[in-house]
Design a protein that fits this description.
The protein has eight helices and eight strands. The protein is of the alpha/beta class and 255 residues long.
Length: 255
């Protein structure tokens, strides 16, 4: 598991205002409804982001993250990947996510990300001129895979994703799909994350380099998995720098 329901994302370095923050029900490519949460930037930068959560699905951390992106000038929508098996209503902390992870369908997941991107490109979503995806843990794998989705993304971002090897969800490994990538990649890891060793990170870097994909890999040596948490004050410097890396990658702020 990545974030618990009482974790919250750290605050971004740019603090503006978010407007039109609301819950949504979007429709996947196959007609299935799924829950989402959107936030419009009061002072838009031209950037938009689709947020893909960890195995817990859409919960308060990601609703809050959408607002934090909007405060940084980024129109945002966070999606839930379990609409077909768990419904499109809100769920509490007792939600048993594991059966739903095992029922994920990679094509349907891609279709849901595409639906979220379509919402962002509408006037209702803010119509930013460039869109990225970002995901965490399982969502990080999903986000990275969107580089080969044909959505015309400006880039994909993965926080502590599993970039190589099989996954119980059946989602392919980003390293294996790298030859099909068509978007730049930002991968962010905790160096103390025992689940994603250095050789896995290096293998993904090599796959991207062999495919000629622009990439940025950031490793915070002493940070664990799920370090990007407002309550984790011991990793506040890593979280602050991670925000900077993300916003630079999205061309929201300069280097």
């Amino acid at each position: 598991m990545c974030f618990s329901t009482d974790d919250r994302p750290p605050l971004p370095p740019i603090r503006g205002a978010a407007l039109d923050t609301r819950d949504l029900v979007l429709t996947g490519a196959d007609g299935a409804p799924f829950a989402a949460s959107s936030a419009r930037a009061a002072d838009p930068s031209g950037a938009g982001i689709v947020i893909v959560p960890d195995v817990r699905g859409l919960h308060p951390y990601y609703e809050d993250l959408a607002r934090r992106f909007a405060e940084a000038g980024v129109d945002a929508v966070a999606l839930d990947p379990y609409g077909r098996t768990a419904g499109a209503s809100k769920r509490d902390a007792s939600f048993d996510y594991e059966p739903h992870v095992l029922q994920l369908d990679p094509e349907q997941v891609d279709g849901d990300v595409a639906a979220a991107a379509t919402f962002l490109r509408s006037a209702e979503g803010g119509a930013p001129d460039r869109i990225h995806t970002i995901g965490f843990c399982l969502g990080g794998r999903i986000s990275l895979l969107q580089a080969r989705s044909g959505l015309g993304l400006a880039g994909v971002i993965g926080f502590y994703p599993w970039p190589v090897g099989p996954h119980r969800s059946g989602l392919p490994a980003p390293a294996d799909e790298a030859p099909r990538f068509a978007s730049p990649v930002l991968a962010v890891y905790g160096g103390a994350d025992r689940g994603i060793p250095a050789d896995a990170r290096d293998a993904f870097d090599r796959a991207l380099d062999a495919a000629g994909i622009e990439r940025r890999t950031v490793v915070y040596d002493d940070a664990p998995h799920s370090f990007f948490d407002r309550k984790a004050t011991e990793y506040a410097d890593a979280s602050a720098d991670a925000w900077r890396q993300v916003l630079e990658f999205m061309r929201v702020v300069g280097p």
